[in-house]
Every structure is written in structure tokens, then in C-alpha cells.
Request: fold
Amino acid sequence: MKVEVQFVGAAQARRLNEAALHDREEARIRDALNLLRVFHDRHIGLPPELANELSAAFPPHGSPDAEAGLRGAIYARLLQAIGVDPKLVRDPRHFDILPRQIIVHDCLLPLAALAVEAIGRTLLFCEDDDLPEIEPHAYENYLQAFRAALETLCATSAPDAETTSIDIFWERAAVKLWAAVRRQRRAGAPLEGGSLQMAEPDGMVLRFVYGLKPEPRIGADPRRIRPIMADEQNPQFTYPRQGGVVDIHSTRRPEDIDDFLISEFMWPPAILADRLLNGSNLAKHRPPPFDERRQILVVGASVDEPVTPPLAIARVAWLDALFRFSIMLHKSNLRRSQLRFGQWLPGSGIAHSALSVADYPQLGKFDFKSVGRLQMCGFFRDAGWLPGFVATRPQHTLAADSPAVASGDDERTRRFNLLMEKVAPELSMFGAESAGGDGVDLNLALVTVFTAGDDRHDDFAWHSRLGNPALPVHSLRVHCPEALQPGSSFTLECHPANSRLSTTVSLPSTALDKAALEQLSATLCERIFEFLWEDMIG
Reply:
């Protein structure tokens, strides 16, 4: 939309500032003027009256003004965008933990830019005195229009209302700020550099996360689970408790002196010295404690970029299936399982997320058959996967000395090698020896690989790149079409081969609408969950 720009001379700008801020204390006046300068330097003509209100609502220090209604409206809209509990909407003070520059950069500046676009006009203060003055009534009309535009943008929308670009803006801002809140609480120290350290979420993937409400039909019986067990997990074997004593044995090792029986020290000094130097002594046999064993490792890897709509909807369907599968793992007492996801980003970068099922006891409260997107979003939001799962900026850059770089593979295989080396070194053919070896603590790995584009001349053998012989690995490749069009097909291919799970999921040949996308997402979720479930129970 075209925006009309009009400049306000320095003398008139000073008079407008004084009229708006004359009754404020000196510190508040300086802060409001600094805030005003931030907006005008970015060609956003924020009126000084609104700069005063924003300064009172979001002070750099101290408590906000109790009468700042704009603050509550902004926070409520942010929380509604990510489906946070309504109780928090009425008490949104947790955002106050953030430094103001983060809220200004990630929310207030783009919000004011949308208001300028809505009214189609902006008044910019400048240092030039040789400019015609704005008529008082024209400025008053601009102020009222700007305020009304902000109120409209901050108004909460109905749950079933049609999605607009404003909803997408609030989703992106809310995910970024909520992640900043979580990071601030965990770090325990103020964030430095503001949103420059924040992940930038992908609006398209977020729209598939929050905008679709599929209802997959999941059928699974937890009683069928027969997990693969390591020896120390097998009840047929007798093992001590961690730190316990197995028996008494004869030893000559100096490091066992601490475990010698007391009776061994009752010999006369000459005999005791001879036994220590030339003989053996009885000691308690106390083997090292067993490590905590994680039963299953679930990994998702997206190797193609940029993220296209088909790739985005497939990844979100996997996230839905992963949430339901994590509930199954928790209820099946496989709580030391690990969930991980990694994606390749432009600029040879990688973004990844990880969690352990044991860290989230709330999974036991869900029913994996009836949970919806609201519960899924809440879980992964609190687990820190949003915005990591939808990031557009890499968390890690390519390591130039990685053996995967010089492997001589094609581009897609090289990306997959680098992803697995960072996200799941236990499975990487380049990192398996150092990460796993004899001390591998996983029983089974389930890997889902996402690819997109023309696959006619592709020899991508992803399963051959999973190089740890000590760990059983079952993998699924979800190959997405180039575009979401009527009749487009998603190809699912399993390894080891499973004719029942290897299938094709197609969009209807009729018009492509929200109902068709929800049905596609539900079907993909069902097939991916079936792969995870069937390969887990064996």
C-alpha cells in the first residue's frame, strides 16, 4: 500500500512535543523523546502523545503506568496468538521480565508500521525549519487515526475468524517474545543485544502450526509395546543398585585399597606391608554404577531449503505425530527417550531442537488419541521448540574441518551428513565412533527425513548414511512435491522396507482449501505415527 509522507519542521515538532509532554517529569520526557526518535528514524511517524503512552506502558525501569490500557491490549493479543491460558491473559506481567528494546524491536515497531500502512499517511519530524506547518486539525486527525489503527490491530479476534496478515504478525511476534521470556528466565541475567540474538520464526510454518486443526484417527494399544532392552534393563539378570556391593573378591590393585575389608588391616604392620606389596587382600566388589539408559531416540531431519509449503505442512504433521508419540513413550515407561529435530538453513547453517521425555511429566495427563493442536503448541512452546522448530536463522554454522564436508557426496547427502553429525552424532557415520561406541545408551533410533522437489534423478540413500552398527535404526523418508496443488502427492518410503508403511498421500484433485489441507495434515500425521509406533513395538 502506498503511504503518503509529510515532514514536520523542527520548530513545530518542538511545540508538539512540549504540548504532549509538558506535565511529565524530566526522566519520563527524556525517555519518551528517545522512544519517539527510534520510531521516526525508521520512517514511522509516531505522534508524541502515543510515544508518551508507550513510554508509560513499557518503561525502561520501574513499574508501568496502571492506566496504560495499550499495554494490556498488546499483551493480551500476543498471548491469544499462541493460545496461552486465559488466566495469563488477565495477568500478563511475565513479559515485563524482558528488556524494553526487545519489545520495541519485535513488537512495537512493526505494530506501528502496520498502523501507518493502515492509515496510508505518516508525519515525520525533521531538523529543517524551512517547511510549511501542518494545520492543527490535520495533526489532530492524524493522531486520532493512528490511535484508532493501533486499537484495531490490538483487538482480539474471534476463534473462528478468517486468518489475516495481522494474525500472522501477532503469531511471529508472540513466538519470538515468548522464547525470549523463556530464555531470560533460564539464563537468570539480562539479555544483551536485544532481538539480534533471537531466532526469526518462519511465518508460513507457524501458520500451519496454529492455523490448521486436523483430527487424525490414531489407533494404538500401549499393551502391545515390547521394547528392546539392554542387559541391565532385563529383569532376568541380577544387577546391583547403583553404588551397591556385589560380593567380596581378592585383589592386588592399589585403587581398591579404599574397599579393603576392615579385617585386612588388623595384621601386624610387617605382615600388612608384605601383603600390600607381594600378596592380595579381600575387598568389596563395587562395580561402577550403570548410566541412565534412554530407550528410544526419535530424530527428524529436514535437508532441503528453502522451506516450501509442502515441506512445511509435512514437518508440522511430523510434529503432531511426535507429540502423540511422546505421550505414548511417557505412559509406556519409556521416559528416558530423546526427541530431536534439525533443519538445514541457507548460508550453510543448522537449527536444531531437543528434549527428553522424562523432563515433561505433564505428558502423562494427555490422551494421545484426542489431543489437539492447542495442547501440542503449548507443549512444544514450553519445551523451547518454538521458535527453534520454525527458525529461519541458523544456530550453528558449517564446520570447515568436518569430515562430512570432504566426503565427496552430492549436496543433499552432504547436508544430511552434517545434520546428523550435529543433531544425532550417535547415528552419524562420521561421529558414531566418538559419540557411541561400546557405551551407546540407546536401544532404538527412529529417523524421519524430509526432502522436497524433483526426485526423478535422485540417488539420495539416506539410510546408508546412518553409520552406528551398535544401534538398530529404522528410517522413513517423506518426499514432498514441489508445490501444494490439487492432485499433488507425498511419497513415504521406509527402511528397512515395509510395504504397508511405504505409501503415497495425495491431495484431492478438486479445489485446494483449508479443509483439504487439514485432511492432508491428518493423513500425514497418521502415517508418520504408524511408522513410529510399528517400528517401536517390533
